[in-house]
Amino acid sequence: MSACHHSKCVSHIETQSGLRSRDHIADTPITVQNWYKHVNWWGVVLTILVPLYACVQAIWIPLQWRTAILSLVYYFVTGLGITAGYHRLWSHTSYRASNGLKVFLALGGAGAGEGSIRWWARNHRAHHRYTDTNLDPYSVNKGLLYSHMGWLVMKQNPKRIGRVDISDLNEDPIVVWQHQNYLPVVIFMALLLPTLLSGLSWGDWAGGFIYAGILRMAFVHQATFCVNSLAHWLGDQPFDASKSSRDHFLTALLALGEGYHNFHHEFPSDYRNATKWYQYDPTKWAIRIWEYFGLAYNVKQFHPDDVQKRHIQQQHAILAKQAAKLDWGVPPSRLPVLEWEEYVEQTEKVGRCLIAIAGIVHDVTDFSESHPGGSLMLKSLIGKDATAAFHGGVYSHSKVAHNLLATMRVASVRGGCEVEIWKTHQHSDVEETPPMCRC
């Protein structure tokens, strides 16, 4: 047997058995026999088992008020490491920062325990470039739970994540240093530092480890996860409805202002998530303070006109969608066309209650008795060109009258108005009605 033939046989056998080495486990069906291979056990330990352990320990370990304050302060420090650092600085380059500020944010982000800057920003850029598609690493279209944390606890084929450019991150020495030394940095910043601060300052070693360390980190995790899930499911879409991103105060409150996600997806390089002064966005406020002290510069912000334009366009789209559900009458382009003589004949010989306004014939049979100006006024215009009367010659009708009239369209008149035959009807008395009109 030739080597080539042998190779083909082996390849065929591997294909049939589903054991080809190049197949990623995430691309194979989950079964009773292989389910554990689909699980990202590091993700399970970090996001589920460790927080559960801390919750159990919290039953016996009292929360001291100093430790509670430390946990809150450290939540803001590590949270800003993610929102102002990982997200707005490195993922979207919304501003530039001094080396000192970058080190602070890199260490704070490590304290959140959400992976290195390089890994986090790479996934987030893919999320923006391929939002709501299969190339989005945490697409909400794969399920709310999946976008929240399922993408972390179940293995993903890295080749299935959309490609993005991270050359700038690879050239940033602080990003490279943090990525290469992430494990010792995250252990120290996420667990050891809060434990040491609490233990050395007021003797609460266990409380510092459980509350300011693990539970604080778990809360930052869940707050960030909400931006991937709730911010694509709950809230309003004032800037764009073509994607799933949404604005909601609850998500902003949990994630230090990151909840105004619909704005963010439309203007990703803007240093803000919230544009109104009263909207909760402490990350925006922190960046402005750093800019004041010279720690942040080249802060990017879209012109208010650009923001307002997109908001108005979205409002138009919403109104157009609502308007499409209403009866606006038959479009003029779809109406049958009558000659003026045919229109007059329909009123005089057939007895239909028709009125021509601006070249459109309207059937007012069911409306004549409820006409606010009285039925006689309306009947006097049967079979005539009532354009001038409708547009101010008798009464300048309201927008409501225009809308109501549109629902009565039945035909259009070739040429738009009466011609020679008009002379035979111009002396009609106000109270005269067509002979056979059934109004």
Automatic annotation (TrEMBL):
Compartment annotation: Membrane
Recorded superkingdom: Eukaryota
Reaction it catalyzes: octadecanoyl-CoA + 2 Fe(II)-[cytochrome b5] + O2 + 2 H(+) = (9Z)-octadecenoyl-CoA + 2 Fe(III)-[cytochrome b5] + 2 H2O
Keywords of this entry: Electron transport, Fatty acid biosynthesis, Fatty acid metabolism, Heme, Iron, Lipid biosynthesis, Lipid metabolism, Membrane, Metal-binding, Oxidoreductase, Transmembrane, Transmembrane helix, Transport
Keyword Secreted assigned: no
SMART domains with a match to the protein in the record: Cyt-b5
Membrane topology: Multi-pass membrane protein
Cofactor note: Expected to bind 2 Fe(2+) ions per subunit.
GO annotation, cellular component aspect: endoplasmic reticulum membrane
Cofactors demanded by this protein: Fe(2+)
Role summary: Stearoyl-CoA desaturase that utilizes O(2) and electrons from reduced cytochrome b5 to introduce the first double bond into saturated fatty acyl-CoA substrates.
Family: Belongs to the fatty acid desaturase type 1 family.
UniProt protein name: Acyl-CoA desaturase
Lineage of the organism: Eukaryota, Fungi, Dikarya, Ascomycota, Pezizomycotina
